Amino acid sequence: MRLKNLILAAMLAASSLTASPSLAAAKDLLVVDFIAEPSSLDPHVQWNTDSFNVYRNIFDNLLTRDDQGQIAPQIATEWKYLSDTEVEFKIRDGVKFHDGKPLTAEDVAFSIKRITDPAFASPQLGQFNQIADAVAKDPTTVVVTTKGPYPVLLAQLTKLSIVPKHVVESVSKDEFNLKPVGSGPYKFESWNRGVEVVVARNDDYWGQKGAFPKVAFRAVPDGSTRIANLQSGTTDLASNFNNDLAAQLESSGQGKVLPVKGERIAYFSLNVNKPPLNDKRVRLAIAHAIDKQGITEGILGGFDTPLDELTSPVSFGFVEGIKAPEYNPEKAKEILAEVGDAAKAEITLLTTPVYDQRVVQAIQQMLTDVGLNVKIESTDMGNWMQRMQSGPDTIPSSSFGRWSCGCQDADGILYPLLHSSSNWASIKDERIDKALDEARSTIDQAKRLELYKTVHQIVADENYVIPLYQASVIYGAAKEVEFSPLPNENLFLNRIGWSGN
């Protein structure tokens, strides 16, 4: 059976996503601590965890994933392929934006065309640039046309937030960011910059309503403060725990640890246009110098799993049997000795406090130990994102990064990081471009896997990017919180319950 027929058979599944949390048992205010505040609440302007975990609840997406990871209806109730390049979506009737205006097919088409407009310059453009057009046939029907057969379309549309055309066209981009209007289970209430974003339950929501009347997302950069807040009861749910904080919370008996191995991968990015990283031998030495097992076991406590490729096992496109260069620091030293003085050029290692600095510092030490000259530069997450998608001429020499596309498909990671058309990529390898283009233009899943195997092997041979590990997301929570973390890291407030009185 062809892929599109399989999708067609699955698309009519029931739209119920999870068991209803108990409204009666919930507290009035749920407090969630993140490392940083959102960069933007306009869902088309930014793509980082601290942003989308907030705006995911203000806006509905065209599609979503259920708690089992399957693509499920949201604003689209059903869909069918008219051809290999045309998909017709039926839009849910009776959905209203937070200002009371109805959500129609026109809003869906507008949202798709907005995020795919190159002039709009969304950092998510690479996720949606195979969409050629979106047309509202009538108030409840949208036809999406792709540039060719595009097997990742539905997976990508689970991230496509629907914005109100009448609002976006009447205000500036900055005004919409400061006061976003969506149709989701929570309404934007306030944003105290650097402190918190508060959202209020949308009691007129068409779907599963949230258990909590209000939710506060707070920016708490320091991990010890996040755990202290949990233990004191001032915070109910906190993200970005490392293994030490998780052990501390567990041993205290004042909360619980909720880990999940996700689609997010950690990687060491190299700008192959800048010396000494333009020398393939230096990149091989770097690959030999990094002890992935030592990082995951010795630093991260075994929550994370070493990887030899840029795709997580929970995502389509992961291929068994790829072997990256093994950890061998002596071999790295030999290679660098052959390179000579050119290998001693300074390498900037860009990072941000959002990432585990123990890992960043360990990588710096490992590379220093084999004779490389690596200097850490730290910046805030917004600036990190901007610099890492600034094109090959200005992307820093190297960077520690963690990537999740939210789509659980290799295309969402490999294309932006490796394809020469992407602002995130510093390489231009025609073999990789060809394989990635073919993989996102055939619905033959077996062929796609072979193409991704080709890409993984080239990366392992050339060391354009060093895959590090499959990252776990570790939350800390009050004992009363009922929450099952998802591999795609989406935090849906209306799927969180409360067991206390």
UniProtKB/TrEMBL annotation:
Pfam families: SBP_bac_5 (PF00496). It is found in: Periplasm. Residues 1-24 form the signal peptide. GO terms for cellular component: ATP-binding cassette (ABC) transporter complex; outer membrane-bounded periplasmic space. GO terms for biological process: peptide transport. InterPro entries: Peptide/Ni-bd (IPR030678), SBP_5 (IPR039424), SBP_5_dom (IPR000914). Its main location: periplasm. One of its GO terms (molecular function) is peptide transmembrane transporter activity. This is Peptide ABC transporter. The lineage of its organism: Bacteria, Pseudomonadati, Pseudomonadota, Alphaproteobacteria, Hyphomicrobiales.
